[in-house]
Amino acid sequence: MSRPAMAFEANPVLFGHGEKPGLLAVELTDDRHIRLYHQDGWEDVPFSPYLWLISPDLLQGTKVPHRLEELSGTSAYRVLAWFDSWADLNAARRHISKVVKAQGLKGETNLFLNDPVQQYLTLSGQTLFKGLRFGDLRRLQLHLEIDCGEADFSHDQPHRASLALGQDVFELTPETEREELERVAQRIREVDPDVIEGHDLFRQHLPYLQERARRLGMKLAWGRDGRPAT
Length: 230
Known about the structure:
This protein is of the alpha+beta class. The protein is built from five helices and eleven strands; from the N terminus they run H-E-E-E-E-E-E-H-E-H-E-E-E-H-E-H. The strands form three sheets. A four-stranded antiparallel beta sheet has the order 5-6-4-7. Strands 10-9-8-11 form a four-stranded mixed beta sheet, with helices on one face. Strands 1-2-3 form a three-stranded antiparallel beta sheet, covered by helices on one side. A hairpin with a 4-residue loop joins strand 1 (25-28) and strand 2 (33-38). The N and C termini lie far apart (53 Å).
């Protein structure tokens, strides 16, 4: 007797085994906690980073607190090492590098996911935007036009620029730049978007605005929890 067909979006291999719906973003907060953002706020959860080892001997002699878990299966990585914090994990990796060099070990001795967000999502099985339809998201579009064409991050003087945020337009000039950036942050807090969209947002527009804010002694406090944009 065949099993009933599984709904496509319910496949844990494709969409993760976590059951937390409506997850919008994930960030490392204080080295031991992960912050989970959703539409009605955020929550901090404990986080224990990890790496895979071919042998527990790689951590022999270290003073870094850790615990080891033996794994079944045929993979070369037979041990999972857990740590109390991201800093402890990196200290352990430095210890492993010394052991590998001292013993002349060849090949891959450990497997490390170098992004704490990826570590959390892999371990927890949580998936961003799970259970949300496209129309459920509060979306805000951002576009920046700079008069010099390409953003000049080395110049102390501001350029004239027009910033479109949804249907609102803010004119950034040497005289109005600080005031307009404050108005942009206020508007983002009012809309409280789940997603900010834009073309070339991470390569040019956001870095340019961050640089201008830095030179003005400001922070782009755009985050739902008041954290600056990164």
